[in-house]
Please model this.
Amino acid sequence: NNLAIGVPFGAADGVVEFSRFVLGGGAQYSYDRPLFGHANRVTVGFDIDAQEDDRQRYLNVAGARGALSFDQLENADSRGLYVHNEFSVTPTVDVLVGLRYDNIDLDVSDRFLTNGNQTDSLKYDELNPMVGLVWSPLREVNLYANYGSSFETPSFTELANGSRGNGTLGGFGDVAAQHPKSYEIGVKGYAFDRLDYDLAVYHTTVEDEITPLANNNGRAFFDNNDTERTGVETSLRYEVFQGLNLAVAYTYADFSFDRSAATPAIEGNRLPGQPEHQFYAELAYTHTSGFYAIFDMLHVDEVYADNANRAENDAYDVANLRFGRDFAFGQWGVSPFFGISNFFDETYNQNVILNATGDRFFEPAPDRNVYGGVT
Model:
């Protein structure tokens, strides 16, 4: 029954075909020369990119390609200029400043006119600064603080006019570019010649974040909401003894909707698909003979599957083991390997489809499974 519900064979636009052409390039120049008697490095550069997608969709008729339902040519052209400067105020304090300008054109030529001509174009002109400070009181300790702004255009998929998720495609919907502003402080370095560490605390506000609105028949639709993200990221890597390394990482993420013009009821809710806590640990051993073994474990906290926060995916812990050996035969290297995924046979969902129609949110992960091979 779950398979029958979860596979909408009669879905419209269920077969996609497209060809893509991409061309781009850029250049960068760095110049090191003292400024007012202090070390200084300035970097300038530019990026130019172009992409053309020739995209068609067809009805999915029990797995076979049916009639044409969508046909458009999509062009994205971007030009970017940037400058970045690093200035040493003292031998232990560096100041970083940067500025980037982007000019982007998005164009759609609609060739499927049954539902009207949805040919359209969008243009973006954006200027984004950043500033940072690094203080290194000791060679092993680096303290830093950063502020930066950025922007990200919607993709053509995110721009597709979903009429608030009812399934109509073509042209551009009312999805705007998103504008994050981020503040970050942190420390990173090493100690005792065998311990590396990194700790960062950040707060980000995003104006018009592109967020999932609905998922109909396997196709996602999007709109804009203002969000806030506060988090902590930390990691440690310790060499227990030669050949044996322990690595751990923890993240805390308090991500929520701040404002939603289209759906005020979700204001204050957590962002779906974002666990509040994640923890990862890995123990890796490598022998001088070429033998290696790696055991890792991941804990993922509960996540909501929808903007309304009414559907929740349970927390889970999953572990993996892999080992092998590298052999050298003259100019040849042979590496057999073997692994056990989901070592403790945890029952969990590997993928969560956000805001899925019909509450088809969850895709289960495989049970314990083994693999092997040789390279």
Remarks:
- The CA atoms of residues 60 and 162 lie 19 Å apart.
- Residues 2-6 form the longest helix (5 residues).
- Residues 1-10, 163-167 have pLDDT under 50 and may be disordered.
